[in-house]
Write a structure and sequence with these properties.
The complex is a heterodimer of chains A (about 250) and B (about 250).
Chain A lengths: L2 H23 L9 H10 L1 H35 L1 H16 L2 H12 L3 H25 L3 H9 L4 H38 L5 H10 L3 H29 L10
Chain B lengths: L6 E10 L2 E11 L4 E5 L6 H9 L5 E2 L2 E9 L9 E4 L11 H5 L1 H6 L4 H13 L15 H14 L4 E5 L7 H14 L4 E5 L3 H7 L2 E6 L4 E7 L11 H21 L1
Parallel strand pairs in B: 3-8, 3-9, 6-7, 7-8
Antiparallel strand pairs in B: 1-2, 1-5, 4-5, 9-10
Helix pairs in contact in B: 4-5, 5-6, 7-8
The chains are: A mainly alpha (about 250), B alpha/beta (about 250).
Chain lengths: ~250, ~250
Amino acid sequence: MKFLLRIIVILAGLIALWQVIIMIFNLPPYILPTPFSVLSTLQNRFALIVHETQITAIETLLGLLLGTLFGSIAALLMASFRSFSFWMLPVLVMSQAIPTFAIAPLLVIWLGYGMTSKIATAIIMIFFPIASSFYDGLKQTQQGWVDLAKTMHAKKWRFFWYIRMPAALPSFASGLRVATVAAPIGAVIGEWVGASQGLGFLMLNANARMQIDLMFAGLVILIIFSLALYFLMDKSLKWLIPWQKFQEHS
Amino acid sequence: MSTAPTILLENLHLSYQNEIVFKQLNLTISPSKWTCLLGPSGIGKSTLLKLIAGLIPAKISGEFFRGTIRTDNTMPVSEQVAYMPQTDLLQPWFTAFDNALIGYRLRGFVPDSILKQAKKLFSLAGLDKALKKYPYQLSGGMRQRVALIRTLLEDKPIVLMDEPFSAVDTITRFQLQTLASELLKNRTVLLVTHDPLEALRLADDIIILSGKPAGIAHTMQLDSPAPRNMDNADVIHYQGLLFDALTKAKEIEA
């Protein structure tokens, strides 16, 4: 079964389970709203939700773009200069060891309530998966290709451009897939610790005012947005790097 | 192309992880001929090929190499060598045609004459329709033909081949051997192989390595022109001798 279809089946199952739990335990709407009331909230507050979604989407996409850019540059530098990788590898591991949650409030203080601090949290979330996967790919060029290029007296930069880099792209792509899932989380974390707009802000605010149906509506949109972004990325990567499937056979 | 050179290996000494692979090995590879290198697995045939190709540096961790590898002209060996490895090593992101030209791309410039030559070779190899296909759209035999064209386009007087026909079925191998033999005439070819029949079909000289450290156990010269058919008198005459020599070479090791 296709992956997308499986996700739809799973979601339908979860929604059904949700409704069944409400009926069995007789839960009041301020604990768990029904799927139907969430849907009607989505309809009634559509303009608001669309606006907040746009904010989170912009933060996510900019974070993804910049995080990918920074991560790729770090990987390229590490692969090219031994001394850079010598000092950069510990930084890379440290960047992953620091919980994003812990420094998000700091980022709000430093970068303000606006979008910048949210973009920064997203960048911090995805810097490591991008940099480490791309670096791994660049370090693992087949010895046979290295030997062949050597007998051909390849120029260093041309070898990098025609062989080493394309050979690393499948590995880079798997890092980018992880980053695509992590980027919206980064943006929402940023919104939670201090913001005046965005889906994370909407959800936190609705939660505080016991508008659980609105909180769920925001959550549903966030999930749909994240999944759509992932599928778009996955499809584009498959189209742009068609040799992912065949690399091992060559 | 000027006449192909003789390759001279003098006093080769190679140790790898405290094991001596070659000790005082002397070997002369005849010019403009096909020399086939046979011998038990792990004896160092591929290593010898890599040494000549300049792929083993004088000193790396756990490896030690001494001796002279030269040709009878004044040019450095590594500038006269084209190398064809066991696997085709085609780049999956390039078309068959671009793969054949990879050497020129890696050095910087593809002359028009090479483009023409490449097209000619593709049609000689029966690959006209495969020009724009990607490696994963080609059969193993076709991929190996592309690798052969890539090797030929380097236009070097010495061609080193490391079992390039071993991964395909018998008939495809037969066809590849014939094609290679015809296209690589008048070059100094050193072919490492496990297949005695391949050596009998293609070689002018056959060298059998055996022992530890490896030395030359046996040499043979076949005078009839290659590629030979299976019913060629030389092939039939030398078959028994070659199998005996290879069996002996293996026993020495055991």
